[in-house]
């Protein structure tokens, strides 16, 4: 990759007025090839390119494979492999998006529900004193009961209670007519004897006292 050429240079001596005094022909040898620095730079570039190619191939081989290995044509929206451990978050296609959509938000309108804010009373506003480190349990409970009874914001709230009283002034009237006016002894169940043998047991149970006395 190198060659040697011969360059002839004539060296002449001149005066101050540029007149030539004498000239001599001397041969000078020059190398027309690449220098050592250029060769080193070219080799360094080649090595860097080789290193980049090797790293790229190594990274492609070490790329993680999917946890669920199956062919694309086997994917179904209603067929899911249930015996896998982990990897569920990577499955972003095996589901029906129509089922997961909110029917209220399909048309882009979601009803607004405004709730009026309520003032939250703090224990300081209600006059509730924090419990000290060491207190009498009896006094502590009684104090808390008194504070709860005196709290106007705690349920049940005071309101007028209207009850439908029975009797005088009631639309339904009195229910005393439902009370039995006679005892069991005043009732006559002898007609059960005429119902036939199927009701004989019932007739014996509700028969009159005379029937029991006759049987005895």
From TrEMBL:
Keyword Kinase: no
This protein's record includes keyword Metal-binding: yes
Places the protein is found: Cell membrane
Predominant location category: membrane
Entry membrane topology: Single-pass type I membrane protein
InterPro entries: Cadherin, Cadherin_Y-type_LIR, Catenin-bd_sf
Transmembrane segments: 38-59
GO CC list: adherens junction; catenin complex
Range of residues in the leader sequence: none
Pfam families assigned to the protein according to its UniProt record, in alphabetical order: CADH_Y-type_LIR
Domain named Cadherin Y-type LIR-motif: residues: 148-207
MF terms in GO: beta-catenin binding; cadherin binding; calcium ion binding
Alphabetized UniProt keyword annotations: Calcium, Cell adhesion, Cell membrane, Glycoprotein, Membrane, Metal-binding, Repeat, Transmembrane, Transmembrane helix
GO biological process, one term: cell migration
PANTHER family membership: CADHERIN-11, CADHERIN-23
Role this protein plays: Cadherins are calcium-dependent cell adhesion proteins.
Name of protein: Cadherin Y-type LIR-motif domain-containing protein
């Amino acid at each position: 990759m190198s060659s040697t050429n011969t360059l002839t240079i004539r060296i002449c001596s001149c005066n101050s007025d540029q007149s030539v005094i004498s000239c001599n022909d001397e041969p000078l040898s020059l190398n027309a090839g690449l220098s050592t620095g250029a060769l080193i730079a070219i080799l360094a570039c080649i090595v860097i390119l080789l290193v980049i190619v090797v790293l790229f191939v190594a990274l492609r081989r070490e790329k993680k494979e999917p946890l669920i290995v199956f062919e694309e044509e086997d994917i179904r929206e209603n067929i899911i492999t249930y015996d896998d451990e982990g990897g569920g978050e990577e499955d972003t296609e095996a589901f029906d998006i129509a089922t997961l959509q909110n029917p209220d938000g399909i048309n882009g309108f979601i009803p607004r529900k405004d709730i009026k804010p309520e003032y939250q009373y703090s224990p300081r506003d209600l006059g509730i004193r924090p419990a000290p480190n060491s207190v009498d349990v009896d006094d502590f409970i009684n104090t808390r009961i008194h504070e709860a009874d005196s709290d106007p914001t705690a349920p049940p709230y005071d309101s007028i209670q209207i009850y439908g009283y029975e009797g005088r002034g009631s639309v339904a009237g009195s229910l005393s007519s439902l009370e039995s006016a006679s005892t069991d002894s005043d009732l006559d169940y002898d007609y059960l004897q005429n119902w036939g043998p199927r009701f004989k047991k019932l007739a014996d149970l509700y028969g009159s006292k005379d029937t029991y006395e006759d049987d005895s």
